Amino acid sequence: MKNKPYLIISNDDGYTAGGINFLIETLRPMANLLVVAPDQPRSGQGCAFTPTAPLRVKLIREEEGLRIYACNGTPVDCVKIAVNELMERQPDLIIGGINHGDNASVNAHYSGTMGVATEAALQGFPSIAFSLCNHSANADFTPLRPYLIDMTFKAIAMGMPPFTCLNINFPNRPKFEGVKICRMAKSRWVNETVRRTHPYAGDYFWLVGECVDLEAEATDTDRWALAHGYVAVTPTTLDVTATGMIDILKGSF
Amino acid sequence: MKNKPYLIISNDDGYTAGGINFLIETLRPMANLLVVAPDQPRSGQGCAFTPTAPLRVKLIREEEGLRIYACNGTPVDCVKIAVNELMERQPDLIIGGINHGDNASVNAHYSGTMGVATEAALQGFPSIAFSLCNHSANADFTPLRPYLIDMTFKAIAMGMPPFTCLNINFPNRPKFEGVKICRMAKSRWVNETVRRTHPYAGDYFWLVGECVDLEAEATDTDRWALAHGYVAVTPTTLDVTATGMIDILKGSF
Fold this sequence. Notes:
By secondary structure, chain A is an alpha/beta fold.
């Protein structure tokens, strides 16, 4: 198995989720896999890590070319433990996903799946995040199979520039129109809270909401691609300097 | 009090922390403040939010021009509750901090203080994050006072381009050399785990580590500015598209 690529996989839906297990079974014949994933759902964790609580991992499954660990931390914690403690050699690629749900546009900031890819890139490894625009636990991932294989091997072959990763989102449909290389759409979440009242312990809130497009006419965004049946590949940078503002601020701040 | 600016303040160290209370007392004479901050420390939470648990707020203090709420959620949750449920009018500015600890370079990705500024910008409001490079609960914030006032009012006056915010870090010293407008330094955390063994419940890990500069010679970064005694102002974008990769990927992916 020595010539097979070595991949680290994590997610934010937890190690039992359909998406990560579909990814594992898809890539297993052609790669050696180290899976370190949360022991429970950790959606919306972004790049959160755990600075003040002990982290534990539990070996769930071990076979030739495959080890699966559950970790009590966030997606970022899982990558840190994998890289610092569990990996056998430098990975050829680190993959987040497949997420159950859309991580395009501003959702990338909240996404634990993108947390995996971001942390991997911060660690200096090429990385991609896969997400399917279907939140259901029973989402059908089979249409993704050839794309997962093709994109994984292309990403390994081309590598990534430092401090970048790929955010790849699939529309929820049985067949795709093709692949679009996109920019991140500008969108905004609105109506994000609902208030409920406990019988004798006061009010509380649930976070909910709708994501509204702020540039619905643009045809080069990830949201446009997904709405039109394309797989959206959004190259993503971790250097978040707003370069255009530097000169403005130098004159006035 | 109608002509005073209206500011929303949050942080990740919790509403009792020294940093946020120093900020509140500094800005209170010149602004009306809505403070919604975590009810306990929430460092390292990045842009994490809470999709699956009920969120509660508790009014801690209410005076003319000042309301302080504690919230059981993350920094991002605090901003969402403030904007969707608690604010009396559109804020002129949303501020994260003052954080106890350095949020420059790649730390911005993990920072709950930057989570506040990021969420504020995603909501469409101008925002800044203040951090002091001193983790101590007893850190001395007094040298920051004139800068906090000056920068808050400049930020209100100039506003921010959409999908941007400011990440402002102060070196830990009694006097500053001046203010530098910077780009985010490329750095990497290393040696991030230590293993410990419970007497009868196996091994666990603590996340620790050191942040290593990957471009120590560069003089235009936030890490350089801080190391040389300057206040580092890093304009930050939420549009994380790696624009330079789009054409490369179009030909090969």
